[in-house]
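quick one, three chains, predict together pls
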Amino acid sequence: MEEVMGFDRSAHLINELLQGMEFAKELRNRIMNPENKGCLSDDNDDQVALNNSLLEKMLSSFDKTITIAKLLHIQLPLHPSESPHSLTISSPISENSHPDDSPPSKRRRVMMRKWTKIVKMSSERGVEDGFSWRKYGQKDILGAKFPRGYYRCTHRHTKGCAATKQVQRSDGDESIYQIMYRGEHTCFQGAQAQFDDIIPAQMKSEQQPPPSPKEQEVYVGLSPEGELKVESEQEPENRAQYFRSLSFTPANLQVVQPDPIESYLMSYCSDFDSPTTSVSNYLQVLPYNHIGLTVETSGTEFTEAVSGPNSVTNSPMMDDFEFPIEELLDFGGNFSFEL
DNA sequence: GTTATTTGACCTTC
DNA sequence: GAAGGTCAAATAAC
């Protein structure tokens, strides 16, 4: 398992984000408290130059972040059978391979959004993701040392929430659990209360299901679900939304030094259900102080999904990377996470 | 008494 | 028929 390599890049990615946020904090302090920065003795031109310099550093950090995210994406296996992350691609091919003309009844399960996360925890119940789950089954899986647990949202009957997840303990490292999520929560109230701490008020009125990504470009932003996303593709209007939401933390970010052994989360998301071939990379900020790198792919054919236009190399990210600093400065909430 | 978990049976898909 | 996924009755926990 190439966890070390993945961690290195993930750590670089996070470090770049944190560096950018430090620049943002400094810029905010300069703007909000000019008297504390000795600006009374500086002329306005110097102040503007310094602020511009900080802004350029922020943009550079986020640029690097996106580049690292792209590198992570490029390292995706071309086919499940070639995956070094043997646990990360567990979805049976049969679920991806329904032809478009399949009867609806045959595609019932396939229509649900699906993604996978790998976590290193001491117990199956050690992972909190902000939702409440009820176990409804357990099954021995062929070739697997440990049984697979089946969970569905507690609000399935009361609110009709169709979200489910499967928890599979790794054969190799018993402290690693693969969690495969299927479907999206429609019971959002439960999680909403917990996201309140990390989603700026401005975001709350804008929440909507994550859009279907398109092609070619990579963007960073916070999804309505509270996920900091590095999107390879995004509709422009949603891109604006995500960038606006990128303003969520910098001023009062609390950084918990990462412990790569205990809390590193590397997530590999597979969405085999979409008929599109789009790919998105998610840097996922989970509630409960976890952060994981999640790569979500969507497509009817996995190889096609990762080897198509999304095997990015030289996309003009800076040309498209906009950062509304005025909104960045608006948000003053606390947010802490660990790697 | 209510809610959550366990587990064998059944269903779906290939 | 095999394997994975879900249901639902029985059981446990609170």
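Residues 1-7, 37-41, 73-111, 189-339 of chain A have pLDDT under 50 and may be disordered.
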